[in-house]
Amino acid sequence: MAIISRGFGGRRRESVDGLPPGQYLTHDFPVLSAGPTPRIPLDRWHFTITTETGQKTEWNWTEFLALKSEDVTTDIHCVTKWSKLGTTWRGVSLDTLLEDVDTAADYTMVHSFGGYTTNVPLEDLLDSKAWIAYKFDGEDLEPEHGGPARMIVPHLYFWKSAKWVNGLTLMNEDEPGFWEAAGYHMYGDPWLEQRYQGD
Asked: InterPro entries of this UniProt entry (predicted)?
């Protein structure tokens, strides 16, 4: 499947101190996606958490927006080597979504409309490390950037911050998602340059 990289060519690359190794600073917001951009009507949007025993907890859009939200300012780092500093989001913490979920799992698989998946250890979604974001820079999240809602896991490479998110499956064993099965690193720490298997 081809990578769509509209708006991603010929940009000036700026290196600054404090970026993860191998990264350069960008001031725009490049669009990189595998496959076409899903357009999800809000009356069809849902987010479902499925435990390792098959127990499901689900929210529709109205229920999701009624949950406690947070404003988050954070840096983001793409595996294709761009970093964007001080991005601002509003979303619901995974701590809130998982608060009443009974699980002994250590791993998760994040699911998206359109079939995309990515694996993230459960501990990397807790303790104010991850959100389901629905606003960027004060505006509703555009479909090209994962709207109406996307995962934000800013301490990992940005492919772990799945666009168009619709669910989370809790798992006892780690499994590769879409890019991990294609050779990307199972974890993806930008500070350790964990881009590909073997890094």
From this structure: OxRdtase_Mopterin-bd_dom, OxRdtase_Mopterin-bd_sf
CATH number at residue 107: 3.90.420.10
Q: Is residue 53 part of a domain?
A: no
198, part of any domain: yes
Dist. CA 122–CA 142, nearest whole Å: 27
Task: Give the neighbor-by-neighbor strand order of the sheet with 46-50.
Answer: 56-60, 46-50, 165-171, 107-112, 117-121
pLDDT score, position 83: 95
Give the containing element (helix H, strand E) for 181: helix 178-181
Asked whether the predicted pLDDT for residue 7 surpasses 70, the reply is no
Among candidates 29, 148, 13, which has minimal Cα distance to 85? 29
Domain with 171 in it:
63-199
Give the mean pLDDT of 153-160: 97
Where do runs of H (alpha helix) occur along 18-137?
61-65, 94-98
